[in-house]
Amino acid sequence: MRKIILSLFFISVLIMLIVFQKEIVEYIMVNYIYQKEIVVENANKYKRNYNYYFVQQTDNFFPKSKQDLMNIFYSILNNGWNTFTFYCDIEYETCIKDIQEITQDEYILSNINNFVHPYNSYNHLSINYNNLGKIVIKVEKLYSDFEVKMIDQKIEEIYNKIITEDMSIKKKILAIHDYIIHNTSYDSERAEMIQNNINDRPYKYQSHKAYGPLIQNMAICSGYSDTMALFLNKMELNNYKIASQEHIWNLVYLDGQWYHLDLTWDDPVIGNGKSMIIHNYFLITTEELEKEMDDQHEFSKEVYSEAK
Fold it and tell me: Which of 201, 224, 298, 305 is most buried (CB neighbours < 10 A)?
C-alpha cells in the first residue's frame, strides 16, 4: 500500500511538472536568475521626468512587445545608465527578432535619443543578446565629463549675462536664441563632409554638439539644437529635439502648445561673410512650419506626435 501511495505521489509530481512546466520555469527564471542580473540603479541628475507618445519611462524590464523594448531603451538613456541588463518575457516569442530590428534601424535609436537630456544621449550603443532572451545594453555617452564641465560653466556665464528675472519666458528664449546665433558660425566644411560621407580626415570642431557653438563658436544643426535644449532644460521647460531625415531642431512646450525653434535656419550662411539673424523659425507652430514648404522640416508625426 505504501509503495502504491509513493508511486501515485511521484506520478502526481511528474504530471504537475509537465502541466505547469512553463510556470515553473518562469518562476525559477524570474526569482533566481533575472533578479540577480537586473540591477536598477538610481538615475543621474540629468533624468527628465517626461513621457511622450512615442516613448515612456518604465520600470518594467520584462518586455512583452516592441513598444516595451523601446520604452526600456528610452528609460536606460533617460536615467543616464552606462550599462543595463534585462530579459525578454518568456511569452514574448518575437523579442529577439524585434531587438534585431531596433538595433539595425539607426533611425529608431536616434529618434529615441532625441527625447533625452543631451548629456544622457549616446554616441554609441553596444547591444548584446542571446537565445535565452538576455539583453545587455552598454552606453557610450556623447559628452565627456570635461565637456560637460566646460559647457555648464559657459551656460551659467551666458545666462547670468543676458537673462533677467523680469523677462517673460519668450523673451528669455529670444535672448538665448539671438546670443547663440550672434556668437556662432555655421560649420559648412563639416556639413559638406557629412553630406559627402567623407570620413578619412578629422573634423576641426566639435560642431555636432553643444561644445562647438559654446566653446569653439562653430555649429551644425545638432550643435545648435543641443545648445538650445540645454538652455531650455535650465529653464525647466518641457522640450525635445525633433528631426527629419537630414536635419534637427527643437520643439518646446509653452502656454499649453508645442512650438518649433530652429536656430540653424535662423542663422543663414551668406556669401559676404557678414553675420545675419532672422526669426522665421522662432517659436512657430507646425501649421506655420508647414507653410514654409521646405523638405528639410518634413518630420514623422508618428514619432513626434506632440507636434501634430
Answer: 224
Topology, domain 145-307:
C8orf32 fold (3.10.620)
Classify residue 120 by its DSSP letter: G
> Tell me, what amino acid is at 67?
Q
207-215: which pairs have CB atoms within 8 A and are 24 or more residues apart? 209/118, 209/142, 209/143, 209/147, 210/118, 210/143, 210/151, 211/143, 211/147, 211/150, 211/151, 212/184, 212/187, 213/180, 213/183, 213/184, 214/150, 214/151, 214/154, 214/155, 214/158, 215/150, 215/151, 215/154
- pLDDT tens, 95-141? 999 999 998 888 899 999 999 999 999 999 999 988 888 999 999 99
Give the predicted TM-score (pTM) of the model.
0.87
At 204-224, the pLDDT tens digits run 999 999 999 999 999 999 999
Q: How many CB atoms lie within 10 A of CB 112?
A: 24
β-pair partners for 307: none
CA angle 48, 54, 55 (to 5 degrees): 45
How far is residue 48's CA from residue 71's CA, in Å, rounded to a whole number? 14
Beta-sheet pairing, 122-129 with 134-141: antiparallel
Using DSSP's 3-state secondary structure scheme, residue 133 falls into coil
**Rounded distance, CA 160 to CA 175, Å?**
12
Q: Which of 48, 63, 57 minimizes the C-alpha distance to 75?
A: 57
